[in-house]
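Today's session is about reading a structure prediction critically. Students often jump straight to the picture, but the first step is always the sequence itself: look for stretches that repeat, for charged clusters, for runs of hydrophobic residues. Only then move on to the predicted structure, which in these notes is written as discrete structure tokens rather than atom positions. Here is the chain we will use throughout the hour.
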Amino acid sequence: MAKKKPDEPPKGAPAWQSTFADLMNLLLCFFVLLFSMSTVDAQKFEEVVASFNQTFSIFSAGATAIGDGILVSNGVSQLNELDEYINSTGKMDEGEIVSEDVANAQQKVEEAQLEEAEELAEKIQEAVDERGMGEDIDLDFTTQYVQLTLKGALLFDSGSTLLKEEAKPVLEQVGLILEKYADGTIEIEGHTDNVPMSGAKYSNNDELSSGRALSVFNYLLSVANLDPANVKHAGRGEYVPVADNSTAEGRAKNRRVEIKIYTTLSSY
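Below is the predicted structure for this chain, in token form.
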């Protein structure tokens, strides 16, 4: 009679042993982690931190702290000195940080711009005086430009953009001055008082000031050798007064044409 072959035991370890082994591994990792956290070598830790700071530091030349010491090892107390440190580097009110070298460079540029504008203003003032136009033209300057101001009563009748005949010789001399001294952009601006327009060709002071600036622009180009690409014209209306519009004298000062001669060093 044939014998029954005994059943083979299942292959591999029992299921409970796998679960138990996983649990032991987890416990071992847990205790190793606790042990490693409790025995950190402070000196080695600082060396690692310093190594990272040298590579990724936000400070110049890989610096690791504000002032003396190491930022990480000294703790958060040093963060209180952050604003003081940034201010010492030249932080502006808006938060923009400007180094001392940049600030000095900006100051030197502004000084050079002002010096050039002042020299140009002196030359133009001398030319204006030689031509006997001192009473017709006021001169001023900034770091960006020299400005010639021509009185509106000299140039135009009330509410008109048609140049007066007596204004043309003055503008011809201005054209000669621009030919000689204007190396950069020239800007012609028309200005009015705040009296509303009524019964005239132009419906408001914006149109009137624009028309007057354009008339001066066209005449200067016709009598002087100027590059039209370098000459701009604009009407500013009543919005940039230089005197009180409540008086007749103030309104007369506000009716004017300004010619700005930008210097070669201007940022325009």
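Discussion point for the tutorial: The longest strand covers residues 145-151.
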